Amino acid sequence: MSPKIFASIAVVITGIVLLYGISDFPTFGDPRSPANSGVEGGAPSTSLYYINESYGVTKVPNLVTSVLADYRGYDTMFETVVVLAAGMAIFAILRSTTKDDETVAGPARKSSIDGDHNRIIVGMTCRLAVPVVQIFALYVVAHGHYSPGGGFQGGVMLGASFILIALAGNLDDALGRFSEKSYMALASLGIIIYAGFGVVPQVLGKNFLDFGVLQKILLTDGPEMARSHSMLGVEIGVALTVMSIMFAIFANLSSRGTLKGGL
Amino acid sequence: MILSFDIIILIFLIVAAVIALNVKDLLSSAMIYGIYGFLICLLWAEMGAVDVAFTEATVGAGVSTVLFIATILNTRRRSSD
Fold first, then answer.
1. Do B63 and A29 touch (CB under 8 A)?
2. How many beta-carbon contacts under 8 Å exist across A and B?
3. How far apart are CA A181 and CA A252, in angstroms?
4. Distance between CA A167 and CA A111 in Å, rounded?
5. How far, in Å, CA of A98 to CA of A92, rounded?
6. Using CB atoms within 10 A as the burial measure, which of A89, A129, A159, A259 is most buried?
């Protein structure tokens, strides 16, 4: 019982410290807070800079996307690398290639959504839902410039559609549609696409991830539209990696690394 | 920012957190954690951070709950403390 008491005391103390820290915050949406108005007599506001300038420079109405994919391009790229590293860690820890559990595949085969008439309602519902989810995910990726969304969200939704197949039937159904070889290849391909959008400007003599110079390759009018289109390419790379890694983590977790049977 | 909406969500948030910590059955705990993630998603959408809310809805309430369930079904289901 005593560990719980100690934990409760620690939680209460942490809560008091956090509440004390919050008392110094500006109120929610205060236009005179330092983040919104800048330091008095000092530096001008960053958020005002993004609000005023970012549309003219990138032609992307969604400020969050332009900040994440262009101004903070390094940050997003290495976040994607972190996702890939997490997937590789799960793979390295869980994946086992021993062939001693052939019995797992036997009974689980029966609960497949393909051609099993005992699961026709579940199979049909899943078959109808998955294309809708995937098309909406593609919309989220492609429309991330104009509305909330982008590579991470769309990629997670694409991965979730494959997870839905694996949950409704068994893991072999999902792996038949998205095999281990292809998700490993796509996870790396996403990073290569992102890094490629960084390296090509370097070859053309600019900084890493400086998308404006790509107007010669993408044949756009002006560097602004080149930035906008490059952001779409970058988001597609992020979506590929996140989709593959989400499904890889689920596949390895749910089958204890054997990639057979499933839940 | 709508104050009454905020207060309702925050009350539900605390209730969901306390229940998720105290339920013995780990599967129920994972499901209630999904509810907790979805309430936070509502709170963020209401505060105007729609991109963050979208990420929370897909990752926090969706995939992480599924990953918890996948882990729980491969381990013992009841907590021992």
1. no
2. 51
3. 14
4. 10
5. 14
6. A159
